[in-house]
């Protein structure tokens, strides 16, 4: 969801100092198509777990995250521990995704145009090229942004391929880092 926020903010020039931005596995066309399935995902996702390990196992079995090591790091942060009236611990999701459902369409509508209209250098990291919509395909052919495809990853690209994602982000940032040039001092000849 962060990609939607940064694309919107940079397209409106709300943060003028942004020199580059990266969006990870979110494209307007495929996101809009997937919204109907998102409610089913929310309904079918367990609302609670007996242990954190159960939640990690579910995330791997469901395909939400494919990298077990990443799931062990990320999933616990998404949970909150609660005690029942019988002093039994359970773990529930920190965020109820379904509550945000009325806003989903607005987040993704116009995303490709916002992403492409930004003056910042752009990197789009995807799990597959099938996710590209027409405007992004054309813009990529025109060299308007850098595209990186990691077909071994699922939707949680940064979780499934953390090293490759991190390397791509750091390399992209270094290539687009704002240069700070030294102040030129006037040359004075002593007489």
TrEMBL record:
GO terms, molecular function: protein methylesterase activity
- Classification via InterPro entries: AB_hydrolase_1 (IPR000073), AB_hydrolase_fold (IPR029058), PPase_methylesterase_euk (IPR016812)
UniProt keyword Hydrolase, yes or no: yes
Q: Which reaction does it catalyse?
A: [phosphatase 2A protein]-C-terminal L-leucine methyl ester + H2O = [phosphatase 2A protein]-C-terminal L-leucine + methanol + H(+)
What's a Pfam family this protein contains? Abhydrolase_6
* Enzyme Commission number(s) from the entry: 3.1.1.89
Source species, domain of life: Eukaryota
Keywords in UniProt for this one?
Hydrolase, Serine esterase
Domain AB hydrolase-1, which positions? 74-167
**To which protein family does this belong?**
Belongs to the AB hydrolase superfamily.
Could you identify this protein by its name? Protein phosphatase methylesterase 1
| Species this chain originates from | Ambispora leptoticha
Top-level taxonomy = Eukaryota, Fungi, Fungi incertae sedis, Mucoromycota, Glomeromycotina
């Amino acid at each position: 969801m962060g990609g939607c926020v940064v694309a919107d903010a940079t397209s409106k020039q709300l943060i003028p100092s942004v020199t580059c931005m990266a969006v990870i596995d979110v494209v307007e066309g495929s996101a809009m198509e997937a919204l109907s399935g998102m409610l089913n995902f929310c309904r079918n996702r367990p609302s609670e777990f007996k242990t954190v390990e159960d939640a990690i196992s579910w995330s791997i079995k469901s395909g939400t995250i494919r990298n077990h090591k990443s799931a062990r790091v990320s999933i616990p942060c998404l949970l909150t521990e609660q005690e029942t009236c019988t002093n039994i611990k359970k773990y529930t999701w920190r965020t109820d995704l379904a509550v945000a459902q009325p806003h989903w369409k607005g987040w993704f509508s116009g995303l490709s145009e916002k992403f492409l209209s930004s003056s910042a250098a752009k990197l789009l990291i995807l799990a597959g090229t099938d996710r590209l919509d027409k405007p992004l395909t054309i813009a990529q052919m025109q060299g308007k942004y850098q595209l990186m495809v990691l077909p071994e990853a699922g939707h949680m690209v940064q979780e499934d391929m953390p090293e490759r994602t991190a390397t791509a982000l750091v390399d992209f940032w270094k290539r687009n880092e704002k240069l700070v040039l030294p102040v030129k001092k006037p040359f004075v000849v002593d007489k």
